[in-house]
Amino acid sequence: MKIKRMILYKVEIPMITSFTTSFGTVTEKPTVIVKVETNEGLVGFGEASALPFPFYKPETTDICMLALKEYISPLVLNKKFKTIEELMNLLKPIKNHNFSKTGLECAVWMIISLKEGKSLKELLGGTQDKIAVGESIGIKKSIKETLEEIDLRLSQGFRRTKIKIQPGWDIEVVKAIRNKFGDIYLMVDANSAYTLSDISILKKLDNYNLTMIEQPLADDDIVDHSTLQKQIKTPICLDESIHSAEDARRAIYLDSCKIINIKPGRVGGLLESKKIHDICKENKISVWCGGMLETGIGRAFNIAVASLPNFIYPADMSPVNFFYKDDLVKDSFSVDKNGYITVPNTPGLGFEVNEKKIQKYTIEKLVIE
Ligand code: OSB
Ligand code: MG
């Protein structure tokens, strides 16, 4: 097949609530929707779910627009390819830009899924019919507010509680959660807020029986994560540090983590996600699916990935309407009363893309042919 045309939509759906982590507060979350049209008349959509600022990863929403237009599209437009492997080989000269690549790659997965009449789950080799879900709870104004949100989510059936931490918002809040809710399934995500000099805080956290601590140290520091993992019993989960299966191999080699958070956007797509999944499985490292506050389009691909067998821990996959006033698919997924999402079995995205909504929330559009 050949890609005849790509349309990039920078879309911004108003948020219901802001989301605060150690790296900053997301109050607006523009995203890039990539529409791909092939010479055979097939159409697919993907999402490049970077943040609007470079505080999580350097690639931002605007950088995705630029990279897709200037660097990615010239390498793929009107070029022949049969498989995702061949598509990604065309993109090999481009370093990083994983969110941008994911936007395109996912749109092509959708097209192949439609063409072959197989669901994304089937194409990927997914084995799980449903995905366990936990909410990722941002840093709040008060401990009281945090406890209230946890209470609500537990009553709604969510399988796991993840809270964001940073120096000054860590031991006390974890302690308050344990005091109120006892031995619930609890984990924390630091988004790189600590260094090895904070070892005394990290050792204190170690006493609270957390399922894992996500990305305590810098995103380029699997060496220090290895040093830290030797000193604490809580499993370290890497998020920001892992951009590829090669990164996963090195982190496993150094014993820098016991768990990996796989986000298709961060690692450059579903194919790379599967490679990370596979190398982790071989090495008895369990994985789970993270999120980038995607719309229903991006989340649909995450759901497909999370159906692979080694996705053991609940996913960061709270419904789109937790964050946004609207969505870009018609009947988005929901979380049932036991905290599970059912994985679609239909070809394509598994959810109907609402192009009217894409147009409604578009703030910038580029047609590339
Ligand atoms: O570290 O997992 C993270 C959102 C934006 C950037 C980084 C992270 C997150 C989340 C939200 O935790 C997860 C979600 O999409 O629900
Ligand atoms: Mg994280």
Short description:
With 369 residues, the protein is an alpha/beta fold. It contains 13 helices and 15 strands.
Structure commentary:
With 369 residues, the chain is an alpha/beta fold. The strands form three sheets. Strands 6, 7, 8, 9, 10, 11, 12, 13 and 14 form a nine-stranded mixed sheet that branches. It has a four-stranded antiparallel sheet with strand order 5-4-1-15. Strands 2-3 form a two-stranded antiparallel sheet. The chain contains 13 helices and 15 strands. Helix 8 links the parallel strand 9 and strand 10 (236-238). It has helices at residues 61-76, 84-90, 98-116, 120-124, 143-156, 171-181, 199-205, 222-231, 245-253, 264-267, 270-282, 296-305, 355-361; strands spanning 3-11, 19-21, 24-26, 31-38, 43-48, 130-137, 160-164, 186-189, 213-214, 236-238, 259-262, 286-289, 315-316, 340-342, 362-368. 2-succinylbenzoate binds next to loops. Magnesium ion binds at residues 189, 191, 214-215, 239, 261, 290.
Give the arrangement of secondary structure elements.
Layout: E1 3-11, E2 19-21, E3 24-26, E4 31-38, E5 43-48, H1 61-76, H2 84-90, H3 98-116, H4 120-124, E6 130-137, H5 143-156, E7 160-164, H6 171-181, E8 186-189, H7 199-205, E9 213-214, H8 222-231, E10 236-238, H9 245-253, E11 259-262, H10 264-267, H11 270-282, E12 286-289, H12 296-305, E13 315-316, E14 340-342, H13 355-361, E15 362-368
The chain binds 2-succinylbenzoate and magnesium ion (MG).
The site of 2-succinylbenzoate has 11 residues, from loops.
